[in-house]
Design brief:
Blueprint (H helix, E strand, L loop, with lengths): L9 H11 L8 E4 L6 E6 L3 E6 L5 H17 L7 E5 L9 E5 L4 E2 L9 H15 L21 H10 L6 H11 L9 E3 L8 E4 L2 E5 L6 E3 L6 H6 L2 H11 L3 H21 L5 H16 L1 H7 L1
Helix pairs in contact: 3-7, 4-5, 4-8, 5-10, 8-9
């Protein structure tokens, strides 16, 4: 999926664990098929999971991620992985890596749960709980989504240029031209910052777990609303909107962040990760066909 992507397999993971985490030596290691684009995931025994970055990262980055992951697990009303440790680079693998606790559940589907009122209510519960955590005087760190919409203009122009044949590029460009001009909302709130279906686990139709909380931090209050656009039809989206009591501007900024994220998924992963590409395209379709969003864009 990435130029220069690191090669990893079960044998490598087993050796890394034996060398760096002797308490877990000899545990069975099994690769887990996921839609993820950042890490290769391996089940370690019954209770743990090893996450090996597909592109090299430093130990300090993963130590920071582990701290945020622990904070997210403490804040989330649903099960979330907890950090166990950070592994270091080795002769075989030139990146830091991590071990976390395993959280069971099925990955949420962008189509299979579209009309679920129960799951919509659970998303409301999650976002409300995260927003209730104090930012502790911090503000958005400037990394990724969650700050100024216009900062993503250059990326969106590239995405639009690469999306010919995948979606209605002219209409999508017109939509972004309206969405990126939305005013900011003021104070940041604590946010998961990547509430996409691959990071949401369900059991018996209810939210049962939330993955990838390592970016937990202050961001635009609208950012976590992307979950509503990635997951739900119009009625269930409205249930999320009412449940959180968001303003019209906040709701449309949530649409803007969903648009920014989805546009990058559609063309980039069309060959290397078709399921992730399909997620992006389905979200764009929801946005382009939403009556309120269409009216806003004129």
């Amino acid at each position: 999926m990435h130029v220069g992507q690191l090669d990893v397999d079960e044998g490598l993971v087993g050796r890394l664990i034996d060398e760096q985490f002797p308490a877990h030596r000899g545990m069975p290691v099994r690769r887990v098929a996921t839609l993820g684009t950042v890490n290769a995931i391996f089940r370690v025994g019954v209770r743990f999971v090893a996450r090996l970055p597909l592109e090299a990262v430093s130990a300090s980055e993963l130590e920071t991620e582990a701290q945020q992951l622990g904070a997210f697990a403490a804040a989330s009303p649903f099960a979330a992985p907890e950090p166990i440790g950070v592994g270091t680079t080795s002769a075989e693998y030139p990146s830091a890596w991590s071990i976390q606790t395993w959280v069971p559940g099925d990955v949420a589907s962008p189509s299979g749960h579209a009309a679920s009122e129960d799951l919509a209510d659970d998303v409301v519960t999650l976002i409300a709980a995260l927003r209730a955590v104090s930012v502790g005087g911090r503000t958005f760190d400037g990394n990724g989504r969650g700050g100024n919409l216009r900062d993503h203009d250059e990326w969106l122009m590239l995405c639009l240029a690469r999306s010919t044949g995948l979606l209605d590029v002219e209409t999508a460009a017109h939509l972004w031209n309206s969405l990126h001009a939305l005013p900011s909302l003021g104070a940041d709130v604590m946010s998961h910052r990547d509430l996409t279906p691959p990071n949401l686990l369900v059991s018996n139709g209810r939210l049962s777990g939330v993955l990838d909380g390592g970016a937990f931090g202050p961001a635009d209050p609208a950012l976590d609303l992307v979950a509503a656009w990635h997951l739900f039809d119009a009625d269930s989206r409205e249930r999320v909107r009412r449940g959180l009591g968001v303003s019209d501007v906040e709701w449309l900024r949530g649409a803007a962040w969903a648009f920014q994220q989805a546009m990058g998924l559609g063309w980039y992963y069309v060959n290397s990760n078709p399921a992730m590409s399909a997620l992006g395209l389905s979200t764009i379709e929801r946005l382009l066909n939403d009556d309120e969003v269409r009216a806003f864009a004129g």
